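Protein modeling request. Please complete all fields; requests missing the sequence field cannot be processed.
Requester role: graduate student
Desired output: 3D structure, token encoding
Chains: 1
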Amino acid sequence: LPRSRDVGDSFPTISSTGPNAISRSWEIWGDTDPCSASRPNAAVIHYHATHGACSLIDRESVYLCDTGGQYLDGTTDVTRTLHFGSPTADERRAYTRVLQGHLDLALATFPSGTSGLMLECLARAPGWRDGMNFRPLCVCVC
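Delivered output (142 residues):
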């Protein structure tokens, strides 16, 4: 079975190339590695897997892959939450509430100048209604 650090090391550095590339993967915070995490580590914001101390990626746990790039014309944030087996009922419930929050936010209409903090409640509302409260600044299953 692969370890999350091994998978993270294998990501291509496409986002660091090209005429419009500024940096690779979250360099604005000094973090240039993708977040590749499984088991409890998948809940740690901006987790860095280290060789020999990271979890195995297996069929019984959630795997999180979070990467992105910053370019002259914009920033990307690609986060994928995967399960290679059968998720538990709690994992399905959390994933569904996060998806509902993302859809609510994507469909929202709001005036120019509205802050992200004001919009965050739209993304969090489905989880709140179901008694869930994800960590601050992280509206995702991560």
